[in-house]
Amino acid sequence: MNDKNRYRNTESMITHGNPSFQAAKEAGLMDLSVRGTGRGTLALPDGREFINTCSCSYLGLDSHPEVLDGAIQILQREKTMNLAISRLRVRLSAMDELEAELSRLWRAKTVVTTTASAASAGLLPLIASGHLLPDGKRPVLVFDKAAHFSMNLIKPICADETEVLTSPHNDLDFLEDVCRKHARVAYVADGFYSMGGAAVVKELLALQDRYGLFLYFDDSHSLSLYGTAGEGFVRTLIGGDLGPRTLIIGSLGKGFGTAGGAVMLGPGHHTDLVGRFAGPLGWSQSLTVPAIGASLASARIHGTPELAERQQALRANIRYFDERIPTRTRGEDFPIKVIEVGPEAEAVERSRRMLERGFYTSAVFFPIVPKGRAGLRIMLRANLAQADLQRLCDALRDVAAPVA
Ligand SMILES: Cc1ncc(COP(=O)(O)O)c(C=O)c1O
After folding, report:
1. Which residues does the chain have with pLDDT short of 70?
2. Measuring from atom 9 of ligand 1, which residue has the nearest CA?
3. Closest Cα to residue 115, out of 220, 25, 213?
4. Is 74 in the same domain as 31?
């Protein structure tokens, strides 16, 4: 019996995905080497300028003067880029300050990591082995079919520890059925999905109440965008402590505006175990020194009314877009918009024409989305000026009209 490719099929991914990447490259949509103009546009070597409408820095904090200054100040003070030793042994006190501040803001013990992907790579095997579950016993591990690649990548490692299943997207009946059959179940999902839509968090919490379901959420796309302190979509729906059966991770390189990742641990989780045994989280690179300084500044902004102002500016831009351009997530208060056009070549051609109109939109195709459901992906931001947004919508109406 062939026991290969049960959780990953690289050959199929490359065979079916690479022609579209190649077509996008030939259309001048990949490997763009740019410089910032300081006017909110990016410039290509030939002088053409465009607006990046695929930035995940949804609140524009990446270019906030205080965030930039935070990176500069800490470098001048510490005079190093990186201590280059496991954080478990020696770390800058500034990292402890950052974690203390994020823990206060987000009401959960928060540990920072080099990336969200590194957090998943380190944590998911510890969940599969049962070490992050309250009774230390291994669960059946269910990945939502639409879970991000950074989590799916770890499936084979998890499958070496326990039984791994894949559920249809947001399928509560499937999950409840697994819960009825097994004493311990853990579910892995995105909070906000990178192609649109959200986890059914309230219903999942109800399953947790009923069956003790363990929940692992990657809420990278809603961190900073949701909640009075930017704690994210999932955290806002959990009152009080996170509890011993929920773990949330996210990227600091998106709405938060800096770099790195963050893990929100419930009170019952073993912080020491995570530090020592979560693979890349304990190796010699941790959050770089400028990223720590920038993140401290971003955390400070998260504690001021400016966060709500930026969140509101983003929501106003989402509403403006939704009134003009129909998408599957219209009206959902979600900054990622996918305009489905169907065939891969159509997506590439429309993205090429959008670039001619001065906007970079990502052509998305398999393996990013299912085969035959290619489209254009657009991310809205708080710092997109109204006039630019209007031009973006006009161009989309001319170039990328969605398939009816
Ligand atoms: C849901 C999700 N998780 C994780 C990542 C990766 O985050 P990081 O670059 O911090 O690893 C992304 C996007 O790149 C994402 O969409």
Report:
1. 1-2, 268, 402-404
2. 115
3. 220
4. no
